[in-house]
Amino acid sequence: MTISYEVTPPVVAVKDVDLTLYRGEILGLAGESGCGKTTLAYGMNRLLKPPALLRSGEVTLHEKDGDIDVVALKGDELRRFRWDKVSMVFQGAMNALNPVISVKAQLFDVFSTHRPEMSRSEKRAVSEELLELVGVDKNRLTSYAHELSGGMRQRVMIAMALALRPQVMIMDEPTTALDVVVQREILREIMRLREQFNFAVIFITHDLPMLLEISDRIAIMKDGAIVEVNTAHNIYSAPQHEYTKQLLSSFPSLLGERGGFVRTGAGGGSDES
Ligand SMILES: Nc1ncnc2c1ncn2[C@@H]1O[C@H](COP(=O)(O)OP(=O)(O)OP(=O)(O)O)[C@@H](O)[C@H]1O
C-alpha cells in the first residue's frame, strides 16, 4: 500500500507497506512521530480524505464466508464494514465524544445505524453490559462526556468500538493523553477484552516499551516504510534493523533491569536476566 498527500510537493507518507494481521493477535505499530502510522491506519480502514490519496494497494479481510476487498467497498457496504468488522479508537478519542449528547444516545446511535432491528430495551441492556465490560458503572449511561474523567471517556470510546463485536480494533495512541496509572488499567482492560472476544488489535504508538509488553508482534515503521516485523520477543532481544536498535536504545528504561510486564508468558522476553 502506498499513500501520498497530494500537496506541493507531494508527501509520500506510506511507502509500499505490506502487513498481515492474524486473527486475534495484537500487532504493535511503532515509529517516531510523522513516520506515517496514522496514515497507514486510515488507509486500512478507508478513512483517508483528500489531499490523502491511496496511490496503490489492496486491503483484504479474510472471513469465514469469503474475502472482503476493502478498497472496493462503497457507500452502505463501507459503512457496515467500519465498526462492524473493523473499529477504530482514535488519537485523542476521549475528546471525540460529543459533549452535549449523553453516553446512552451515542451508544444507541451506533446500534440504530448498524442494528436497526434492535429494540430500545435491547439497546439499553447491551449498552449497560458494554459499559460494565470496560469498567464503567452502568449508571453512567445517562452522563454527558463533560461529566466523565478522561479515563472514563476513553473507556466509553472503547465500549463503542467494541459495540458490534468487530474482528479488528485499530487503536491509535488510545492512552497517550492519560496518566500512567489509568493508562495501565486501560491497557489491562484491552488485553482482557481481547482474550474474551478474540478480536485482533493494531496498536499504534511511539511508546515501544509499552508495545513490547502488550504485543504479539511488532512492526517498526520509519519514513513511511515498515523496516522490520517480528515477535515482540525478537524485536527486543534480537533486533535486526539498525533503526530498531536505535529506537530501543532511545528508551533508557529498556536498557536497565526489566520491570514487571503486564503481559505474562510469550512475548515478554525472558531469555536473559
Ligand atoms: N493533511 C496532510 N497534508 C500533508 N502532509 C500530511 C498531512 N497529514 C499528514 N501529513 C504528513 O504525512 C506524514 C505521516 O503523518 P502521520 O500523521 O501518518 O504520522 P504518524 O506516524 O501517525 O505521526 P504521529 O505519531 O505524530 O501521529 C508526515 O510527514 C506528515 O507531515
Automatic annotation (TrEMBL):
GO MF terms, alphabetically ordered: ATP binding; ATP hydrolysis activity
Keywords: ATP-binding, Nucleotide-binding
Pfam family, one: ABC_tran
Matching CDD domains: ABC_NikE_OppD_transporters
Gene3D superfamilies, per the entry: P-loop containing nucleotide triphosphate hydrolases (3.40.50.300)
Occurrences of domain ABC transporter (ranges): 2-248
Domain of life: Bacteria
Stored InterPro entries: AAA+_ATPase, ABC_transporter-like_ATP-bd, ABC_transporter-like_CS, P-loop_NTPase
Protein name: ABC transporter ATP-binding protein
